[in-house]
Each structure stands twice: as structure tokens, then as C-alpha cells.
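To start, an entry.
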Amino acid sequence: MCPECSKDWQSTPRDLPEPSQTFHCPNCHASRPLSEFMRTERDLETLKELQ
């Protein structure tokens, strides 16, 4: 979920960059570390496990 525009979407974790890398919202193009786009701690843990 984008912290700026609140756009909610899903992606396969393997298709995403490392949690600390900059990610760009596909809706508003906000740039933040990918970890800030995770909705829950569990989302972040899953992403780290699969990468």
C-alpha cells in the first residue's frame, strides 16, 4: 500500500527489489524504501524470506 496515495496492489515477492531498495509506486510514482509499502510486519517478513 502506498503511504502517499493509498493505492493498494499485490505483487509477487520475487518480482520486487530488496526491502531496503527504493521502490516507486506504480500509481503516483512516490519513491520510498520498499519496506514502507508493506501493509503489515508479516508482509515484510514474507518478502525477506522469499528473497
